[in-house]
Amino acid sequence: MPLVGELSALQENHFNNALSAHLHPEIKEGRVLDRGGWVKSVPIGYNGKPSPYAIRGKYDLLMEFQDGTYGVIDCKFQGRDNDKSDFYAPQLEAYAFALENPVSGEPRKVSVIGLLVWSPKKPSGDPYSGFSLDLNSSWFPIIRNPEGLQERLQDFIEVISGPTPVRDSKCETCKFISDRREIFGAE
Predict the structure, then answer these.
(1) Domain-by-domain residue ranges, the chain?
(2) Strand partners, 46
(3) Do 78 and 49 touch, CB atoms closer than 8 A?
């Protein structure tokens, strides 16, 4: 997806140090503090103890709001103006977790997460002056759900830390891997 990545990078750069009103009028008052920053959390707790796992990721835009809280905004360039916030909610919630529980530095309270989506509206211009695209800009806020993220992380840790299924079991994943090996002749 090199084109989508390039377009998202243009979007992020366009909003460098921008006021929230320049992103979308529905975003509370603040300013873009950083873009393209990495986050890493403390170890994720599992059964009351730190696990060997942490969250690490790279957000698109980090907002700082007038009330001292922060926001994580993911920039998307899509062919259609679709709300994909359900799909991206766990990713943004994970970034919020890492910002609120950093392995180093001060914790930052995250009050807003959401998607800023650009999508083509119509072409404009001519062959003499050049062409451009008029864009729709949509804001899709995501309701914070830290408990849902914790449940997901607990399930994930349980699966990857649990016993490896017996190869000849009725496990659908094991069947898929065995079938794939037979098709491609790999062992």
Answers:
(1) 2-184
(2) 49
(3) no
